[in-house]
TrEMBL record:
InterPro entries (UniProt xref): SCFA_transpt_AtoE (IPR006160)
Superkingdom field: Bacteria
Keywords for the protein's UniProt record, in alphabetical order: Membrane, Plasmid, Transmembrane, Transmembrane helix
UniProt organism field: Paraburkholderia largidicola
GO cellular component: a single term: plasma membrane
Membrane spanning residue stretches: 35-53, 65-90, 110-138, 200-221, 268-286, 298-318, 330-353, 359-380, 443-463
Pfam families hit by this protein: SCFA_trans
Protein name: Short-chain fatty acid transporter
Length: 464
């Protein structure tokens, strides 16, 4: 056979070899930018709503889309603040030194996986925002030291992060454990809250969570590309970032420190905010019980970041850099809010949930809740918003069938963990911070989707 020596041949990708290489190959060529993907999903959902939804007419669809698009803005700002304040913590000098010290232990791809998975999983279990930031920055630090495929490493970080909806920041578990929470649908229906001991600390949740971390660590070690196929990290540096972070008031024309620079470098501003924040938390937790919701999580992250960055200007510069990484989410949140609005307003989401609920029994309802959640998560990739859509249908079914309410609710949350490995929404900040295109990463996380899909389903069915 004559070999193709044309000029374009050098630019043609080699035929993929193996399942993983094939997935990466497909995602690189088929998957568009996440913002473009969100627009495509809007079109698909709108067509489905018009064709099959109970109230799928044009006026209802347009009104639901508008309401959802702008109704999500407050929640979107909360999510972006969690990421930005988490970024400021992870960028603090003491945390950076810790990340560099950790990265020094990763001398091979196998050791990199053995380090990344537990560290990122623990961070994500504590708080999903912290897990995203730590995963991205730790991946960069390791990739600077080890000859490792960077997309593979970032995908490993994102896979380890996937367990976050089974952790302390699980919005579904937290809301059902919080008295008076707007999303505590269990309390509204039964008058009782569901303690965390029956959700994230229950064996049917923490056992598969541990299994996903352990099993995927082993699988990722096996999946690392051969040396000749490795695409390593390229750290070009960004001098413009440093320049933009420089203090414009640092010196006056005669070289002396200005009043503005002294104010910016003073810790008094930091201390004032720390006193206010810590004082409020102490008062609130003394008068009521200890509780973590989105706003208190943001406040705690803010206070920790301020303390670690020390001066107001250092913290402000860290947030400016964080804003560059979270900017793409400003586009996607309203679009997905519109999708959520269409699904809820036209009854499309309820139709999907009810289709599974109608064939359920007390024993199988958690599994059907899990499976329907897999579909809805791909279209509504926010656990809180997703729960607001699906919860009102699966919980009454659990109560009427006398099925396990905690298991049914966590079936929704566990499916969030799984579907996030195919839905790129939450991968956007981690790939932006890491500095890599998302398509290669999703080729690897598709494997995580398949494996975790089976593990969580088996746990819901078998672990008691």
């Amino acid at each position: 056979m004559k070999r193709d020596t044309s000029p374009t041949a050098a630019f043609q990708p080699a035929a993929p070899r193996g399942i993983v290489e094939g997935l990466v190959y497909v995602f690189e060529r088929v998957m568009p930018d996440p913002f473009v993907l969100s627009i495509c999903l809007t079109f698909v959902v709108a067509v489905l709503a018009l064709l099959i939804a109970p109230t799928g007419n044009v006026p209802t669809l347009l009104d639901a889309w508008y309401t959802g698009t702008f109704g999500i803005l407050a929640f979107a700002l909360q999510m972006i603040l969690i990421l930005a304040t988490g970024y400021a913590i992870a960028e603090a000098p003491i945390v950076q030194r810790g990340l560099r010290a950790l990265a020094a232990h990763a001398q091979t791809p196998a050791r990199a996986a053995l380090l990344v998975f537990p560290v990122v999983a623990i961070a994500a279990w504590l708080n999903w925002g912290l897990g995203l930031i730590v995963g991205a920055l730790l991946s960069r630090e390791i990739a600077r030291r080890v000859h490792v495929d960077f997309a593979w490493l970032v995908a490993g970080s994102y896979s380890a992060w996937s367990i976050c909806n089974s952790g302390l920041s699980s919005s579904i578990a937290l809301s059902q454990a919080s008295h008076g929470n707007a999303l505590n649908l269990v309390e509204k229906a039964t008058g009782h809250v569901v303690p965390l001991a029956e959700t994230i600390f229950a064996p049917f949740v923490f056992i598969p969570t541990l299994l996903v971390v352990v099993v995927m660590t082993a699988i990722f070690i096996k999946m690392h590309p051969k040396s000749e196929n490795v695409v390593a990290f390229s750290d070009s540096g960004d001098a413009s970032d440093e320049a933009s972070s420089a203090d414009p008031h640092a010196r006056s024309s005669d070289g002396t420190a200005t009043f503005a620079s002294r104010l910016e470098q003073s810790m008094l501003g930091t201390l004032l905010l720390l006193v206010l924040g810590v004082g409020y938390l102490a008062m609130e937790w003394h008068e009521n019980k200890f509780d973590l919701d989105i706003n208190t999580t943001i406040l705690i992250f803010l206070l920790i970041g301020l303390a670690l960055q020390r001066t107001p200007i250092a913290y402000a510069n860290a947030i400016r850099r964080a804003a560059r990484q979270t900017g793409s989410m400003l586009l996607q949140y309203p679009v997905y809010g519109g999708i959520m609005g269409i699904m809820k307003g036209t009854g499309l989401a309820s139709m999907i949930a009810k289709a599974f609920v109608t064939i359920a029994t007390p024993a199988t309802l958690p599994i059907w809740s899990y499976l329907s959640s897999l579909i809805i998560t791909l279209l509504v990739p926010s656990a809180g918003g997703h729960w607001a859509v699906q919860g009102p249908f699966v919980l009454p079914a659990a109560i009427s069938l006398h099925a396990s309410v905690p298991r049914t609710a966590m079936g929704v949350a566990m499916a969030e963990n799984v579907s996030n490995m195919l839905q790129p929404f939450w991968a956007v900040p981690i790939v932006a911070i890491a500095g890599i295109r998302i398509q290669r990463v999703m080729g690897y996380t598709a494997v995580t989707f398949a494996v975790s899909l089976v593990i969580y389903a088996a746990a819901l069915w078998l672990v008691h």
